[in-house]
Design goal:
This protein has 365 residues and is of the alpha/beta class. It has two domains: 8-150, 3-Layer(bba) Sandwich (Glucose Oxidase, domain 1); 162-364, Class I glutamine amidotransferase (GATase) domain (Rossmann fold, 3-Layer(aba) Sandwich), CATH 3.40.50. It has eleven helices and 19 strands. It starts with 7 loop residues before the first strand and ends with a helix. Keywords: Amino-acid biosynthesis, Arginine biosynthesis, ATP-binding, Glutamine amidotransferase, Ligase, Nucleotide-binding, Pyrimidine biosynthesis. Composed of two chains; the small (or glutamine) chain promotes the hydrolysis of glutamine to ammonia, which is used by the large (or ammonia) chain to synthesize carbamoyl phosphate. Tetramer of heterodimers (alpha,beta)4. This is Carbamoyl phosphate synthase small chain.
Length: 365
Amino acid sequence: MKYTPNPRAVLLLEDGTLYEGDAIGKIGTSGGEICFNTGMTGYQEIYTDPSYFGQIVVNTTSHIGNYGVNADEQESATPKISGVVVNEFSKLYSRKTADSSLNDYFIKHNTVGISGLDSRSLVRHIRSKGAMNAIISSEIFDKAELMAKLKQVPSMDKLELSSKVTTKDAYTYGDESSKIKVAVLDLGIKQSILKNMAARGIYCKVFPAQTTFKEMEAWQPTGYFISNGPGDPSVMDYAVTTVKEILAADKPLFGICLGHQILALACGISTFKMHHGHRGLNHPVKNLVSGKSEITSQNHGFAVNMDELKSSSVAELTHIHLNDSSVAGMKLKGKKVFSVQYHPESSPGPHDSRYLFDQFVEHLN
């Protein structure tokens, strides 16, 4: 194979920090909030997770692309990221079952990226300075022009995004003969969540994000699920209202990630934007009910207010993040309602937390 050098690319951060490297994927320009994921595997699942909509993802793993892509490993139909930053990028792949190279996949789906830069330095910078917007370009190299374009990228703070990634039409998933029916509010759901519920005999109907409780209740579900998704939960009044009505009807409910935050807001507990968020596959969480710890998969830049949860008369803390003592899970007193800040479907990631789907099934029976 003839070697052809990659075109040049640059990454400009909101604070003026500039990195240079090689272009990967589509030749173009793209901006978003920059964040990093510490997972050692599962890059395709990360890129297709709707929770990353509007974000540029930095992979801390040194080698990306080496096993190609496979249609069965997508969490949604296409990549949802605004861009990707990696250290070493492989246009060749060794897995026989792969459908294509990651670079061809990026080109097909108009994903802009940069490789060959010091990702360790970049991650340390983000950890120190906090989350900020950034822009990648393989066609514009004038810093002033790039900064002007970067200023047009909206801040993730107070940004509603679930309506941009949710399904347009309701659809069903699982065995329609099942006696257990769950109405899923799609705020940016991952396919692995539906797979985990279907594997436990749950028949799901997935509804668009702004569907009302009355519309979902007409389907006569056994319970409700509030999904993960992108954006700031504090501006999602429509979803908070829906969850309040579910709670008033005393229905079983399970929330994951953004769904967890929406549940907190429905209980009068505020959320806040984190310094740089939790994203990776090795986050330690303690279950305060069982006393056991679990290694979890996480992806969130907002969190639930711990002090307000502890003083709540309706909700109580069930899980705590062992790195920074932030809220990792809660339940409502006297109701079959609970939520976690992490991803028990763990795709990618360890399977320590999949018991939570079994717990949901118990509430539904």
